[in-house]
């Protein structure tokens, strides 16, 4: 590792590299083409950043191209790489769809050494003759399994056709395997496989299944929103269900954000920013939109819809518990869903019943703190009022032994009130109306 990087790492107290960071350092620095596999959340971006950046020549044009499957992942990678590139006086430019292309073209004229982009925008710029990669030395495919699928694979093919240089290093990174035949055929080379997926890494991710009827899943989210310091990325299989749930949570005044492919880059960036700052309890998203995202210290991931395969479950779970930190994966579903989930993944999944009790034992403190924090805000107080209602309902349903005496007392108090018949009540209302008509128009004293 470059001594300037080591100095910075030492200054922030970083002492140990992850297995993937150690394994790829030498091959990348030596220019080998590799196929690197490691679990999500193990620092793959830094794994290729640290060895490659010191090999780049400042002010010598575009030398490193990093491709990512989504705008968000490309921007996230840009931030990480730029942080270290600044130490070496290297320029980094992001080329993503949805962003201002004129601004990107103006920046390209300065010939940044490092480009980070999405295949669509990069292939567009190459096709229009605005981007030339004659000095390119390395191509990185981040989340390679996603990039080498369907239409995106065709865009990668178009980009590579303009390069097609056997001396250009190609590195594939991801948590799941790519088709070796497809990768070797496209880039016309063999890749050195570096597989660190089965290396033991300290982890504290808990996996739980919460039996929940489909029409109750939105209410589960509303309950979880009352928990203090709780945030979660919520995954959906369809955009339609995501938007229905977003409407429900908005009606219930639950602070949340959505990340949907098709939204403008500004909207998506704002959603991520609100979630990272903690102003949104939930980030509602789909698998494609959230691929590879890194939310530091994210407490939980929620599978509103169960993933369709084990690979997808792995990528969703990788959003929490990153770099060995604690995390929680919650899956909603019925008995049939539970059986399917056990077939999909090999992890130990605990079935949690009486979920309301789990939610309610923290809610009292949350409600009081929410009232103090948002005093005078009608919207926020509405959330707190609903939270209190959920807690009260929960306690009445889930703690019958403790509340029996109080229930009897309430019932006795109600029975001591005088009973008013329907006939008497109607007569009283009729008398009040007559009195009102009689006094109508008279001056008040």
TrEMBL record:
What are this entry's molecular-function GO terms?
Answer: helicase activity; hydrolase activity
Give all residue intervals belonging to the Helicase ATP-binding domain.
25-195
Source organism superkingdom: Bacteria
Question: Looking at the record, which segments are called Disordered?
Answer: 363-445
**Feature: compositional bias, Basic and acidic residues:** 383-398
Record key words, sorted = ATP-binding, Helicase, Hydrolase, Nucleotide-binding
For this protein, the record's CDD domains field holds: DEADc, SF2_C_DEAD
Under Gene3D superfamilies, the record lists:
P-loop containing nucleotide triphosphate hydrolases (3.40.50.300)
Q: What class of enzyme is it?
A: hydrolase
Q: Which InterPro entries match?
A: DEAD/DEAH_box_helicase_dom, DEAD/DEAH_RhlB, DEAD_box_RNA_helicase, Helicase_ATP-bd, Helicase_C-like, P-loop_NTPase, RNA-helicase_DEAD-box_CS
Q: Where is the composition biased (Basic residues)?
A: 430-445
Where would I find the Helicase C-terminal domain in this sequence? 216-366
EC number(s) on file: 3.6.4.-
Membership in a protein family: Belongs to the DEAD box helicase family.
The name of this protein is DEAD/DEAH box helicase
> Which organism does this sequence originate in?
Weissella sagaensis
